[in-house]
Write a structure and sequence with these properties.
5 helices; 434 Repressor (Amino-terminal Domain); single chain; 2 strands
């Protein structure tokens, strides 16, 4: 699953640590999601979308292999 969290963070000018604190996870979790090594749960995806004030579908994209 692809995501554009890095781009969205840049728009808001927040760090991985700041995003992690807002949604209650570690910075390492944000890093793993951004680098597509970890697929977040539905709840975590919704929390991320809420921070960016965008629908989940605009942040996460399914690939053909998913």
């Amino acid at each position: 699953m692809k995501n554009n969290i890095r781009v969205e963070r840049a728009i808001l000018r927040i760090t991985q640590q700041q995003l992690a604190e807002r949604i209650g996870v570690s910075r390492q979790t944000i890093n793993a999601i951004e680098s597509e090594k970890y697929v977040p749960s539905t709840v975590l995806s919704l929390k991320i979308a809420r921070v960016f004030e965008k629908p989940v579908e605009s942040i996460f994209t399914l690939e053909d292999t998913d």
